[in-house]
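Give me structure tokens for this 253-residue protein.
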Amino acid sequence: MNAFIKKEFLEWLRTGRMMILGSIFILFGIMAPAFAKLTPWLMEVMAQQLEKTGLTVSAVNVDALTSWEQFFKNLPLVLVAYTLLCGGIFTDEYRRGTLIPVVTRGLPQRRAAIAKFRVMALMWTGGYFLCFGITYVYTAAFWDNSAATNLMPAVLCAWLFGILVTALIPFFSALSSSSSGVLLGTGGSVAVMYFLSILPQLTKYLPTRLLSGMRLLTRESTLRSLYPAITVSLVLVAACVTLSSLLFHRRQM
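Here you go.
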């Protein structure tokens, strides 16, 4: 399996997937503090344009919380880009038949699925914390990050949601032979979680709550209140990885 993991890293590198993913995370890491820094200037320009119509725009004060608010608002877009990039990571192997030589030489199919999940999880973790690090450095340069309380718990909760999305990809890849099916399954699962959030009795258990990092930063909620969502997310990750390895083991190459 170590050899297969090395093969996966080489494939990410040679296909340009790693460079694209890194560029996306770097871009979004810069965007959050840049948008916060430019907000007063944008509001000033808007105020000058609206002054002729008799409308007034009040001044806007920005701080570290403004930057982190933008960071957490951008996360769904980052996850969409990440899912689109990884959605075909299994189905491309089916189409090209490149798994057949590996499987026939002794690597169990379930281990191939686990290896691919590990590589995707490492890519998500590296890219996500690269994005976080860039935002942290720029925010610290412009403002004071001490204003953002519970920053690391909020960041780690959002990271865990990304791991859940990563686990959904191999699960639906074991069920579907097309990248569109994988994307629909993964995106549909997240959409169902958001839809279920309209039910108050289920809200605290839904993994989508892990993306509400600003509530932790502004002390509107506590880390303890996210324990049910964290527990459900960890159970779902374990279930998806286990089921995907079992289903993949029975799949005809």
